[in-house]
Design the sequence.
């Protein structure tokens, strides 16, 4: 992607981006269990360069390899991708070697301590930021009030 760099913060002016680049900004692709394999690296970077994806949602892998790959993708892009993950129980849920695994949300709800919930959220945010992640798709707003939906289980803070 190439575009004039005249927007605040060194980002390209969206009005100057070609339609294909704008469309690419709407796409968030999955990077799952990346461990640094050269063929996977080259394929990802080639596709990233060709399509100009706006985001990458990461599910596990070898943390060091993931961080390096995403840094390379950022360096090749006029508009850096938004890097997101699903860290309902902390950064360590996806990357045990790089972060803390916290109890499920139901445990925080049962504790009934908003300050504890804020402290856990702040710790998760610090770990994400330290590794170049921008958004955590958690906690979810599930309620544990439907027995026929067992996937919610401990993902909910409670039933109210």
Sequence:
């Amino acid at each position: 992607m190439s575009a004039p760099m005249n927007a605040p913060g060194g980002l390209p002016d969206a009005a100057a981006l070609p339609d294909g680049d704008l469309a690419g900004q709407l796409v968030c692709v999955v990077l799952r269990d990346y461990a640094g394999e050269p063929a996977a690296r080259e394929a990802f970077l080639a596709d990233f360069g060709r399509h100009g994806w706006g985001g990458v949602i990461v599910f596990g892998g070898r943390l060091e390899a993931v961080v390096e790959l995403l840094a390379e993708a950022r360096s090749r892009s006029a508009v850096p991708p938004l890097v997101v993950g699903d860290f309902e129980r902390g950064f360590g849920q996806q990357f045990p070697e790089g972060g803390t695994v916290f109890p499920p949300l139901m445990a925080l709800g049962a504790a009934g301590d908003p300050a504890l919930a804020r402290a856990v959220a702040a710790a998760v945010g610090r770990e994400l930021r330290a590794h170049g992640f921008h958004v955590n798709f958690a906690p979810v707003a599930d309620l544990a009030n439907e027995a026929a939906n067992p996937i919610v289980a401990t993902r909910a803070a409670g039933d109210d």
